[in-house]
Amino acid sequence: MQSQRNSSIETLRILSMLMIISHHFIVLSQVKTLELPISVNKLFSDLLLRPGGKIGVTVFFLISAYFLCQETVNTKRNIKRIVALDAQMLFYSLSITFIFLILDYKLVSTTTIVQSFIPLISRMWWYPTSYIIFLLLSPFITVSLRRIGKKNHFNLVLIVSFLWGLIAGLLPKIYLDLSSQNMIIFCYLYILTSFYVWYLKPVSRRFSLTLIGLGLFLIWSNILVCSYLYQKTGSSLFLHLEDSFISHEWKLPVAFTAFGLFSLFVSFQYYSKSINVIAKCTFGVFLIHNHPVSSSFLSHTLFNMSNTFNRISYPLIAISIILLVFILCILIDLIRQQIFKITLDRHINYITAVIFNTLFVLKHRIQQLMYTHEL
């Protein structure tokens, strides 16, 4: 019998998805908030909503990494996960594209139609594509990290933390080969997470809160100072620096905040069936609202704040819309889960076995060819 998931961690999964939606809301709002003078609505947008995207994505992966590094290495289980994830991607890529072809075909490009049939390899969504690649490699990464031992693992943590935590994590426009959203980000975070889980004692809640506070302080102070200097000088340099600490998942302030949230929620333990049911839908929420056509639609409808931003009620309107989108996507994914129960879920073990056995036979044939060639 499968053990029940800690609902505290699942609550964090829900929170991280709300943060991701909040970020997409402000990015697609048709309002260039970073260019605006400081006001209550700008502070609400740029200090509370905007940073949520990268923090939420990092937290979302940290949760997955936390469970992955505690499992026994099992390639077949990872293949099953990949089949399930790819099925969800294909379901939403095709269904959303088809629905909008009927409702408003102008929003659907030829490129999107082609991508809809191959969402994984076309990278329609960067996160699931990169995560699936990581899942393929994770058994070998995990075994390798285990075999190098605590001392070498610690040395590796120091190296990657220096490269991507300090140098690329603090300096603007410095990437050190992490110039785009890709699987290497997950490898970096997995190296850190696995070391923490395997070798360190859980940090105190006070330390977790300190990390969160430090991360948010760095993010908020950078936005406020650069916004002030941009308004005073008009220099685009300060405009570009305004969100430099929240531009990527590996940025140190983002990592501080994400690790702080992660370690804080892991320290609590409780079970709620409702929370776990909602958390199970969060990947679907990401796929639905972040589909290229959905994003375009939301940008011109619900997320469009061009005529609303200056109102006193803007923060309340923004929160309401974010929650509305989240709830609607949850309901849609619950329907998707019921559809899958009578279709894919009944055959997923068979599909996984076929793929695994095919790969196993292919591996042995390659080995035989190599052995024959050596002879």
UniProtKB/TrEMBL annotation:
GO terms for molecular function: acyltransferase activity, transferring groups other than amino-acyl groups. It comes from Bifidobacterium jacchi. The chain crosses the membrane at residues 12-31, 51-69, 89-105, 125-144, 156-176, 182-200, 207-230, 250-268, 275-292, 312-335. It holds the Pfam family Acyl_transf_3. Keywords: Membrane, Transmembrane, Transmembrane helix. InterPro entries: Acyl_transf_3_dom (IPR002656). This is Acyltransferase 3 domain-containing protein. Residues 7-332 form the Acyltransferase domain.
